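Postdoc handover notes: sequence design on the structure in folder B. Input tokens:
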């Protein structure tokens, strides 16, 4: 349980940092809302992303392992982008504002989120 909470926290922070870096091409929460509402939206998106990444991501990566090896790992970026787009769709069903400007921005967001997660995990685990 502690690992899940840690992953959720790191994912939420990484998504927030990525939204700051990518500007208007990736947004979480509605602009002009209170800080509390934006933090709650970020936590909700982080929770959905963590669940999607842990369950769906693990299954998809296991099934596509030969293709991941064949593409030298580049397929992982595409898979993570698709997981972000799935997270966008799921959160929109619950009324949480999380917007990506299309597939290529999702690919860039997947790269930025992965880098942010790596850095934040290294900082938090120390």
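Designed sequence:
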């Amino acid at each position: 349980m502690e690992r899940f909470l840690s992953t959720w926290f790191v994912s939420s922070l990484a998504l927030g940092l990525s939204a700051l870096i990518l500007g208007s091409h990736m947004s979480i929460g509605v602009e002009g809302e209170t800080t509390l509402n934006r933090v709650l939206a970020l936590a909700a998106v982080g929770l959905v992303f963590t669940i999607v990444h842990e369950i769906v991501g693990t299954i998809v990566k296991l099934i596509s392992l030969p293709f991941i090896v064949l593409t030298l790992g580049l397929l992982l970026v595409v898979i993570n982008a698709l997981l972000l787009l799935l997270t966008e769709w799921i959160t929109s069903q619950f009324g949480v504002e999380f917007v990506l400007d299309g597939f290529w921005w999702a690919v860039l967001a997947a790269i930025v989120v992965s880098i942010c997660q790596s850095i934040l995990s290294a900082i938090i685990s120390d």
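Context for whoever picks this up: The chain is about 80% helix and 5% strand. Don't rerun without checking with the PI first.
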